[in-house]
Amino acid sequence: MEESVVQQIEDLRAQCLGCAKCELAGTRRNVVFGEGNPESPLMIIGEGPGMNEDATGRPFVGRAGALLDEALAACRIGRQHVFICNVLKCRACITENGRTRNRPPAPAEIEVCTQWLERQIQVIQPLVILCLGAPSAKFVIKKDFKMTQERGIFYPTRYARYAIAALHPAYILRQAGQSYDGGKSLLISDIESARKKVIEAKKEPKPTLF
Ligand code: URA
Predict the structure, then answer these.
(1) Could you identify the atom of ligand 1 that is nearest to the CA of residue 46?
(2) 10 Å Cβ neighbour count for 18?
(3) Which CATH superfamily groups domain 5-198?
(4) What gap in Å lies between CA 79 and CA 31, rounded to an integer?
(5) For the chain, what are the domain ranges?
(6) Ligand 1 contacts CB of residue 159 (under 6 A)
Protein backbone atom coordinates (compact mmCIF):
# COMPACT_ATOMS: atom_id res chain seq x y z
CA MET A 1 0.00 0.00 0.00
CA GLU A 2 1.27 3.46 -0.84
CA GLU A 3 2.33 5.60 2.13
CA SER A 4 0.20 8.62 3.00
CA VAL A 5 1.44 12.07 2.03
CA VAL A 6 2.04 12.83 5.73
CA GLN A 7 4.14 9.68 6.11
CA GLN A 8 6.08 10.37 2.90
CA ILE A 9 6.90 13.92 3.99
CA GLU A 10 7.99 12.68 7.44
CA ASP A 11 10.24 10.05 5.82
CA LEU A 12 11.75 12.77 3.64
CA ARG A 13 12.20 15.03 6.68
CA ALA A 14 14.11 12.27 8.50
CA GLN A 15 16.47 11.88 5.53
CA CYS A 16 16.90 15.64 5.09
CA LEU A 17 17.80 16.18 8.77
CA GLY A 18 20.92 14.08 8.23
CA CYS A 19 21.97 15.84 5.02
CA ALA A 20 25.68 16.48 4.53
CA LYS A 21 25.60 17.26 0.79
CA CYS A 22 27.30 20.66 1.23
CA GLU A 23 29.48 22.60 3.65
CA LEU A 24 26.52 24.27 5.36
CA ALA A 25 26.13 20.99 7.24
CA GLY A 26 29.23 21.98 9.19
CA THR A 27 27.97 25.39 10.33
CA ARG A 28 24.24 24.87 10.82
CA ARG A 29 22.59 24.33 14.18
CA ASN A 30 19.43 22.83 12.68
CA VAL A 31 18.16 21.76 9.28
CA VAL A 32 14.99 23.74 8.50
CA PHE A 33 12.98 21.23 6.50
CA GLY A 34 9.65 23.07 6.48
CA GLU A 35 6.31 22.66 8.19
CA GLY A 36 2.57 22.96 7.87
CA ASN A 37 0.04 20.86 6.01
CA PRO A 38 1.69 18.65 3.36
CA GLU A 39 -1.77 17.97 1.90
CA SER A 40 -2.34 21.66 1.26
CA PRO A 41 -2.86 22.81 -2.35
CA LEU A 42 -0.77 25.91 -1.51
CA MET A 43 2.96 25.70 -0.92
CA ILE A 44 4.99 28.74 0.14
CA ILE A 45 8.71 28.74 -0.65
CA GLY A 46 11.12 31.29 0.81
CA GLU A 47 14.86 31.72 0.38
CA GLY A 48 16.58 30.09 3.32
CA PRO A 49 16.78 30.01 7.11
CA GLY A 50 18.15 32.97 9.07
CA MET A 51 19.48 33.06 12.61
CA ASN A 52 16.15 32.34 14.34
CA GLU A 53 15.20 29.57 11.95
CA ASP A 54 18.65 27.97 12.35
CA ALA A 55 18.25 28.13 16.13
CA THR A 56 14.77 26.57 16.16
CA GLY A 57 14.66 24.36 13.05
CA ARG A 58 11.41 26.08 11.96
CA PRO A 59 10.83 28.26 8.87
CA PHE A 60 9.95 31.95 9.13
CA VAL A 61 10.03 32.40 12.90
CA GLY A 62 11.92 35.71 13.07
CA ARG A 63 10.74 39.24 12.18
CA ALA A 64 10.16 38.25 8.54
CA GLY A 65 8.05 35.37 9.79
CA ALA A 66 5.94 37.68 11.94
CA LEU A 67 5.26 39.87 8.89
CA LEU A 68 4.43 36.79 6.82
CA ASP A 69 2.02 35.56 9.50
CA GLU A 70 0.34 38.98 9.57
CA ALA A 71 -0.04 39.02 5.77
CA LEU A 72 -1.38 35.44 5.76
CA ALA A 73 -3.83 36.31 8.53
CA ALA A 74 -5.08 39.28 6.46
CA CYS A 75 -6.09 36.63 3.88
CA ARG A 76 -7.56 34.38 6.60
CA ILE A 77 -4.77 31.85 6.13
CA GLY A 78 -3.05 30.19 9.09
CA ARG A 79 0.18 28.17 9.10
CA GLN A 80 -1.88 25.01 9.45
CA HIS A 81 -3.48 25.69 6.03
CA VAL A 82 -0.28 25.76 3.98
CA PHE A 83 3.13 24.09 3.74
CA ILE A 84 6.02 26.53 4.21
CA CYS A 85 9.63 25.78 3.37
CA ASN A 86 12.68 27.29 1.72
CA VAL A 87 14.97 26.83 -1.27
CA LEU A 88 17.87 26.22 1.14
CA LYS A 89 17.37 24.02 4.18
CA CYS A 90 20.41 25.30 6.11
CA ARG A 91 21.49 28.81 7.03
CA ALA A 92 23.96 30.41 4.64
CA CYS A 93 26.07 32.84 6.65
CA ILE A 94 29.50 34.36 7.01
CA THR A 95 31.41 35.27 10.15
CA GLU A 96 33.55 38.42 10.05
CA ASN A 97 35.27 39.99 13.07
CA GLY A 98 33.41 37.60 15.33
CA ARG A 99 30.00 38.60 13.90
CA THR A 100 27.84 36.21 11.89
CA ARG A 101 25.44 37.47 9.25
CA ASN A 102 23.27 35.91 6.56
CA ARG A 103 24.51 35.84 2.99
CA PRO A 104 22.74 34.98 -0.27
CA PRO A 105 22.87 31.27 -1.11
CA ALA A 106 25.67 30.27 -3.50
CA PRO A 107 24.58 28.73 -6.84
CA ALA A 108 26.28 25.42 -5.93
CA GLU A 109 24.38 25.31 -2.61
CA ILE A 110 21.09 25.93 -4.43
CA GLU A 111 21.93 23.22 -6.93
CA VAL A 112 22.48 20.47 -4.36
CA CYS A 113 19.88 21.60 -1.85
CA THR A 114 17.02 21.89 -4.31
CA GLN A 115 17.10 18.10 -4.67
CA TRP A 116 15.27 18.18 -1.32
CA LEU A 117 12.85 20.87 -2.48
CA GLU A 118 12.08 18.90 -5.66
CA ARG A 119 11.28 15.83 -3.58
CA GLN A 120 9.08 17.89 -1.25
CA ILE A 121 7.16 19.23 -4.24
CA GLN A 122 6.81 15.72 -5.70
CA VAL A 123 5.22 14.51 -2.47
CA ILE A 124 3.01 17.55 -1.81
CA GLN A 125 1.97 18.15 -5.45
CA PRO A 126 0.70 21.68 -4.78
CA LEU A 127 -1.75 23.31 -7.17
CA VAL A 128 -0.26 26.74 -6.50
CA ILE A 129 3.22 27.75 -5.33
CA LEU A 130 3.82 31.17 -3.80
CA CYS A 131 7.48 32.14 -4.12
CA LEU A 132 8.79 34.62 -1.58
CA GLY A 133 11.76 36.49 -3.02
CA ALA A 134 13.86 36.13 -6.14
CA PRO A 135 15.88 32.95 -5.39
CA SER A 136 12.64 31.01 -4.98
CA ALA A 137 11.04 32.54 -8.10
CA LYS A 138 14.22 31.88 -10.12
CA PHE A 139 14.08 28.23 -9.15
CA VAL A 140 10.34 27.61 -9.48
CA ILE A 141 9.32 30.00 -12.28
CA LYS A 142 12.28 30.90 -14.49
CA LYS A 143 16.00 31.57 -14.16
CA ASP A 144 15.79 35.21 -15.29
CA PHE A 145 12.80 36.14 -13.12
CA LYS A 146 12.65 39.89 -12.33
CA MET A 147 10.79 40.64 -9.13
CA THR A 148 9.90 44.28 -9.87
CA GLN A 149 8.34 43.52 -13.26
CA GLU A 150 7.04 39.99 -12.74
CA ARG A 151 5.71 39.63 -9.20
CA GLY A 152 1.96 39.15 -8.86
CA ILE A 153 1.68 37.28 -12.19
CA PHE A 154 0.73 33.59 -12.47
CA TYR A 155 3.01 31.32 -14.46
CA PRO A 156 2.45 27.69 -15.42
CA THR A 157 5.44 25.68 -14.13
CA ARG A 158 6.72 22.12 -14.06
CA TYR A 159 6.36 22.14 -10.28
CA ALA A 160 2.75 23.28 -9.91
CA ARG A 161 -0.10 24.23 -12.21
CA TYR A 162 0.44 27.86 -11.18
CA ALA A 163 3.21 29.79 -9.45
CA ILE A 164 3.27 33.42 -8.40
CA ALA A 165 6.03 35.43 -6.75
CA ALA A 166 5.75 38.06 -4.03
CA LEU A 167 8.22 40.40 -2.36
CA HIS A 168 10.16 38.70 0.41
CA PRO A 169 8.99 39.88 3.87
CA ALA A 170 12.63 40.52 4.89
CA TYR A 171 12.97 42.90 1.93
CA ILE A 172 9.78 44.72 2.98
CA LEU A 173 11.15 45.06 6.52
CA ARG A 174 14.17 46.90 5.15
CA GLN A 175 11.89 49.61 3.62
CA ALA A 176 10.70 52.65 5.53
CA GLY A 177 7.49 54.71 5.54
CA GLN A 178 5.41 54.51 2.37
CA SER A 179 7.72 51.93 0.77
CA TYR A 180 7.13 49.65 3.74
CA ASP A 181 3.35 50.14 3.62
CA GLY A 182 3.30 49.68 -0.17
CA GLY A 183 5.43 46.52 0.02
CA LYS A 184 3.23 45.03 2.70
CA SER A 185 0.06 45.77 0.67
CA LEU A 186 1.61 44.06 -2.36
CA LEU A 187 2.51 41.02 -0.26
CA ILE A 188 -1.04 40.77 1.04
CA SER A 189 -2.55 41.19 -2.43
CA ASP A 190 -0.24 38.51 -3.90
CA ILE A 191 -1.13 36.07 -1.11
CA GLU A 192 -4.82 36.83 -1.71
CA SER A 193 -4.32 36.17 -5.45
CA ALA A 194 -2.72 32.83 -4.62
CA ARG A 195 -5.61 31.93 -2.29
CA LYS A 196 -8.18 32.74 -4.97
CA LYS A 197 -6.21 30.84 -7.59
CA VAL A 198 -6.33 27.70 -5.42
CA ILE A 199 -10.13 27.94 -5.31
CA GLU A 200 -10.33 28.47 -9.09
CA ALA A 201 -7.82 25.70 -9.89
CA LYS A 202 -9.72 23.19 -7.75
CA LYS A 203 -12.73 23.70 -10.03
CA GLU A 204 -10.71 23.17 -13.23
CA PRO A 205 -10.86 19.69 -14.75
CA LYS A 206 -7.78 17.60 -13.92
CA PRO A 207 -5.47 17.26 -16.92
CA THR A 208 -5.47 13.49 -17.49
CA LEU A 209 -4.95 11.15 -20.40
CA PHE A 210 -7.76 8.73 -19.55
N1 URA B 1 13.65 34.06 5.30
C2 URA B 1 13.40 32.99 4.51
O3 URA B 1 13.48 33.07 3.30
N4 URA B 1 13.05 31.87 5.09
C5 URA B 1 12.93 31.74 6.40
O6 URA B 1 12.61 30.65 6.84
C7 URA B 1 13.17 32.87 7.20
C8 URA B 1 13.53 34.02 6.63
Answers:
(1) 3
(2) 8
(3) Uracil-DNA glycosylase-like domain (3.40.470.10)
(4) 19
(5) 5-198
(6) no
